[in-house]
Amino acid sequence: MRLVIVTGMSGAGKTQALKMLEDMGFYCVDNLPIPLIETFAELTLKNPQGIQNAALGIDIRSGEDLSVLNRIFDEWSRNRVPFEILFLDAGDEILIKRYKETRRAHPLAAGGRIDSGIKKERGKLAFLKEEADYIIDTSKLLTKELRQELEKIFMKHESYRNLYITILSFGFKYGIPSDADLVFDVRFLPNPYYVDELKNRTGEEKAVRDYVMQHGTADLFLNKLYDMLEFLLPNYVLEGKNQLVIAIGCTGGKHRSVTIAKAVYEKFRSRAEFGIKIEHRDIDKDNTGKKVV
């Protein structure tokens, strides 16, 4: 049997996660009073022919009873109760935006500002995040991507990827991505924009990639970049970072940056230590015929 405690920041996707786990065959209960959790676990474990997997939703609504969880988890660990903690998180700006879009009141805001409620909530839930077996930052995840991550953990039994990486190509003329953690400028590479037959094509096409990769300069750069990332990524995992955006930019964001971003993605996509996806922010822009340098 698998008993999963689903918790995290309000607005980070706990309700969605519970619905997804229910689709995967879990018996889900949301906001069960904490004093009843031990009884629920005991009854479930004694009925192996009934409920096979269960998920319990716990959040800030439990109030002062949250402090009881430490004792419960300690007892479960001593008695080898097979429980796991899934913590859903998101950046403060994302949470504020979600609350404003839904026009909901934060449970700890008490009629005040949403950001103050979020700060209080982070403090009260910090111990759960520290104890969590799985932390998923939903700031940049689409609903289908969250489902994929949950399926990897709870259905396919794949190694959990605590760090989720986004490889993002972009054009400097449209601005550096505000959420970028690492930014690399590849405007030193050969520019297909000045080749008539390549100008309106993208780095997703072989002819453009071949042009960008000519002379070996791009290969040399990629090898140095790979070496740096091989050093950085394990250290980000050890530090507990959940989300990493690696932004690769050229002038317009459709030729050189796309080519290099795709190469980085292909290099690291099969690694078990982290999840990874690729996005091309500006690939459909820059078709105005304006000069690009």
UniProtKB/TrEMBL annotation:
Pfam family name, one: RapZ-like_N
Family matches, as HAMAP family: RapZ_like
Residue ranges annotated for the RapZ C-terminal domain, each copy included: 164-284
Taxonomic lineage from the root: Bacteria, Bacillati, Bacillota, Clostridia, Eubacteriales
Domain of life: Bacteria
Chain positions recorded as GTP binding sites: 59-62
Keywords: ATP-binding, GTP-binding, Nucleotide-binding
Residues annotated for ATP binding in this entry: 8-15
The organism of origin for this protein: Clostridium boliviensis
UniProt xrefs under InterPro entries: P-loop_NTPase, RapZ-like, RapZ-like_N, RapZ_C
Domain RapZ-like N-terminal: 1-155
Gene for this chain: rapZ
Name used for this protein in its record: RNase adapter RapZ
